[in-house]
Amino acid sequence: MTTMAEVSEAEKFLQQLEIEKVEAKSKLQNEPEFENFLGQVDQVVDVIHGLASEKEGDLEKAFMKADMLLGSVNKDMGDIDETRCKVTSNRTVVNKPKNEEQGQGEMQPEAWMSMMEQDAKERYENRMKRKEKSDEFKKKGNQLFNKKDYGGALYNYNEVRTLYFCLS
Q1: Disulfide engineering: 137 pairs with which of 89, 102, 149, 159, CB 3.0-4.6 Å?
Q2: What does the alpha-carbon distance between residue 83 and residue 76 come to, in Å, rounded to a whole number?
Q3: Within 10 A of 52 (CB to CB), how many other CB atoms are there?
Q4: 98-121, pLDDT tens digit by residue?
Q5: How many CA atoms lie within 13 A of 155 on its CB side?
Q6: CA–CA distance, 161 with 144 (Å, rounded to integer)
């Protein structure tokens, strides 16, 4: 059986859900996807009410309804039901071609290879610069260590470590 504290906590949760539902509904009226979502929220609220109920019949019905809802969620994970999930606007910004009129963003192999070579060259140059800097910090850290300035040596060794892990 559920305790009074659990029932009270469930009631608070349900009240918060109802408040959020009313706020969201006022913002997004007449959108089918949103209406579908609100229907699912109502089903979850019914399950929670049933689980918090003191009546045995309500508890069993709530478990059955929860199993049914979870079963439909698991089914939906495999195949997308087009009637339930409809894209209304494309918000994708990743991998969009710069100029969609030029062959849908396809790149010539020579241009791609040229870009890869340039990128590799820049990475190599940056790696060599960081290696030179890390060697300077290491040399200075060794000098400070020999002078028993351990704090300064530690600082320089930490700089070497930071630059070293950026070498890749």
Answers
A1: 159
A2: 12
A3: 19
A4: 554 445 557 788 888 899 999 999
A5: 6
A6: 16
